[in-house]
Design brief:
By secondary structure, the protein is of the alpha/beta class. It is built from 21 helices and 26 strands. It folds into four domains: about 350 residues, 3-Layer(aba) Sandwich (Rossmann fold), CATH 3.40.50.12780; about 70 residues, Roll (Luciferase, domain 3); about 90 residues, GMP Synthetase, Chain A, domain 3 (2-Layer Sandwich); about 100 residues, Non-ribosomal Peptide Synthetase Peptidyl Carrier Protein, Chain A, CATH 1.10.1200.10. InterPro entries: AA_adenyl_dom, ACP-like_sf, AMP-bd_C_sf, AMP-binding, AMP-binding_CS, AMP-dep_synth/lig_dom, ANL_N_sf, PKS_PP-bd.
Length: about 650
């Protein structure tokens, strides 16, 4: 089957859009380990490029050999089967080698985002108690500042030692053994670790009905290693003999992504829904090499999907759905070229999994009924690390209409299955939200706020601003008397919150209330909480002569943030902006000025006055694609400094 045959089947009307009929190349065996499948590809395609970052790459033989050597070195350091190894690393070639080596040593990897606050990282590291934490030279200082951390090892040094070490016998690992621990936001006030087995990964990308990976595919790797989309990218490529192409910088830009796709003939990629929307909005030319694009993480815009398909008629476009607990994906909907609907379904179950619509008593409902979406099959997590109570609550046994007993994960999502077996998303049962593809439990924010001794109580809720963007709003009830102004009090509370929660969980607005509205049961009536008032105009100094750039930036910020009266010296993130929104500003700024701008500079100058001065000073714009990788270390240092300053 050639690379366009799957799309041709749609154009010829031989299969339904929701049920692509991809004839799988690689069989799925639930008992095989991930690394044995990579070794299989190394035997089949020894000289093919397995991983490429910039000008540096590894063939399948080199990847297999180097990861085995590193696994032996880990075992000489005392790593045994069942251990957890922490990864405090960027998206990089050595990180891929480390993941594979950890699996070969019989351990599970736990990836951490170095930009998270020390308290948040400290809790996760203390919870999973890693035998070792692998770092690079850039992150070693930050990780040592976390009190619970010990046994930190420089990955670069370890790789040098591994090259000189003797071979080591590797343990037997099967499909049911733990492969990784991924932390997600927790409704109890602390993040929870989801333990995923080898078979969950293998079933995601082998012998599948929603995609077919080919040996000549180039799979783009843009996800941070602590985001489960990286699972699809990395192992989708390496378990099928394809090439994994990584963008090594910690901060992406749309031009950089598009240029990488064009220069390297990328054929397959998975993006967050927000990044997919941005790519459609700001990339006018066709990305001709792409044959299959997947997106997911939030409710998708049908308008963006239609526009993409009009511009890329030969590319398959798939809306993917699935929480971390089912190994990235549970269902998929491949959008037909003539799609006319206003709502994009989340599709049908992918292979080796099954979806169920349940009532309150966990009984299966017939088509056309709305209920809780549950997932069964080989993608299910082993459970939550150190949380048997929560594991029992969310992973349950149901009895199907056929009389079978199945272990299922209760997603908390509401859905309806139509008569064709296609799923339609209908919202949440609880207070979990998604912003920029990141899963956020509002209860975790509330719990963190309530630990602040200055507050008698606190509530976190989600609203949409005038631009239609989701914003988290904190409602604060202080202990009397409040000895400062409301503005100073809310700023102080949010400043403390930034030390314990990641930036994407920090409320963009905060309101002080003397009392919370209560319902007849004596509980807070969230439906009666007042919406945040429109932003008051912020007094600004008159724009200097020749201040066109400041005027342009003010207009772009106000459009993206959905507010007016933005001050020249206000921090973009303090105004409730997110990284994804700043990438949108960057893309619009390049279009307006007609030149390339280094995305790192936009993040380094997070207020209008500073960024305008930088742009007007004649500083060089983004380096051409040929020199981007030579500047990777400098970019990483700058972004680490910025993230620490805004945590």
């Amino acid at each position: 089957m050639n690379s366009n045959e799957g799309r041709a089947e749609y154009l010829n009307g031989r299969v339904t859009a929701a049920r692509p009929n991809f004839q799988a190349r690689n069989s799925y065996d639930s008992q095989r380990s991930i690394h044995s499948l990579v070794s299989e590809q190394a035997a089949l395609r020894p000289y093919a490029i397995a991983v490429q970052f910039g000008s540096t790459g590894l063939t399948y033989t080199e990847l297999d050999r180097l990861s085995s050597a590193l696994a032996g070195e880990l075992m000489r350091l005392g790593v045994t089967k069942g251990d957890v190894i922490g990864l405090f690393l960027p998206r990089a070639l050595n990180t891929i080698v480390a993941k594979l080596a950890i699996l070969k040593a019989g351990a599970a990897y736990a990836p951490f985002d170095p930009s998270y606050p020390a308290n948040h990282l400290g809790y996760m590291i203390g919870d999973c108690n890693p035998k070792l934490i692998l770092v690079d030279k850039e992150s070693i200082g930050a990780i040592r500042a976390i009190p619970t951390v010990s046994a930190v090892t420089d990955l670069g040094y370890l790789l040098e030692s591994a090259e000189k070490g003797l071979p080591h016998d590797l343990p037997d690992v099967s499909g049911g053994d733990a492969a990784y621990v991924m932390y997600t936001s927790g409704s109890t006030g602390r993040p929870k670790g989801v333990v995923i087995p080898h078979r969950g990964i293998a079933r995601l990308v082998r012998d599948q009905n929603y995609i077919r990976f080919e040996p000549d595919d180039v799979v783009l790797h843009t996800a941070t290693i602590s985001f489960d989309a990286a699972t699809f990218e990395i192992w989708g490529a390496l378990l099928n003999g394809s090439t994994l192409l990584g963008i090594g910088d910690r901060k992406l830009s749309l031009p950089r992504v598009a240029q990488t796709i064009d220069d390297n003939r990328v054929t397959v990629m998975l993006l967050t829904t927000g990044l997919f929307h941005l790519l459609v909005d700001h990339r006018s030319s066709r990305l001709a090499s792409l044959r299959h694009v997947l997106f997911g993480g939030e409710v998708a815009s049908s308008d963006h999907a239609k526009r993409f398909l009009r511009g890329n008629p030969d590319c398959i476009l798939t809306n993917a759905y699935g929480p971390t607990e089912v190994t990235v994906m549970a269902s998929a909907y491949t959008i037909p070229p003539d799609f006319e609907g206003d709502e994009i379904p989340i599709g049908c179950s992918i292979a080796h999994s099954r979806v169920h619509i349940l009532d309150e008593d966990l009984r299966e409902l017939p088509p056309g009924s709305e209920g809780q979406l549950a997932v069964s099959g080989d993608g299910l997590a082993i459970g939550y690390l150190n949380r048997p109570d929560l594991t029992r609550e969310r992973f349950v046994t149901i009895h199907t209409a056929e009389g079978n007993s199945l272990r299922c994960y209760l997603t908390g999502d509401l859905a309806m299955m139509d008569s064709d077996g296609i799923l339609h998303f209908r919202g949440r049962l609880d207070r979990q939200i998604k912003i920029d593809g990141k899963r956020i439990e509002l209860d975790e924010i509330e719990a963190a706020l309530r630990r602040d001794a200055r507050l008698a109580d606190a509530v976190a809720d989600c609203h949409k601003n005038s631009a239609g963007t989701k914003q988290i709003v904190a409602y604060l009830r202080p202990h009397p008397p409040m000895t400062m102004s409301e503005a100073d009090f809310t700023a102080a509370i949010l400043s403390t919150l930034k030390t314990v929660l990641p930036s994407h969980m920090i409320p963009s607005r905060a309101m002080v209330l003397d009392r919370f509205p209560m319902n007849q049961a004596g509980k807070i009536d969230r439906s009666q909480l007042p919406p945040p008032p429109p932003e008051a105009a912020v007094p600004t100094a008159p724009l200097p002569a020749g201040g066109d750039t400041e005027v342009l930036l003010t207009r772009l910020w106000e459009q993206v943030l959905g507010r007016t009266g933005v001050g020249l010296d206000q921090n973009f993130f303090d105004l409730g902006g997110t990284s994804m929104q700043l990438i949108r500003v960057h893309a619009a700024l390049e279009e307006s000025l007609g030149r390339s701008i280094d995305v790192v500079a936009v993040f380094q100058h997070p207020n209008i006055r500073s960024l305008a001065r930088h742009l007007d000073s004649g500083n060089p714009s983004a380096a051409p694609a040929t020199s981007v990788h030579a500047r990777a270390d400098l970019r990483k240092r700058m972004m680490s400094q910025f993230r620490r300053s805004t945590s």
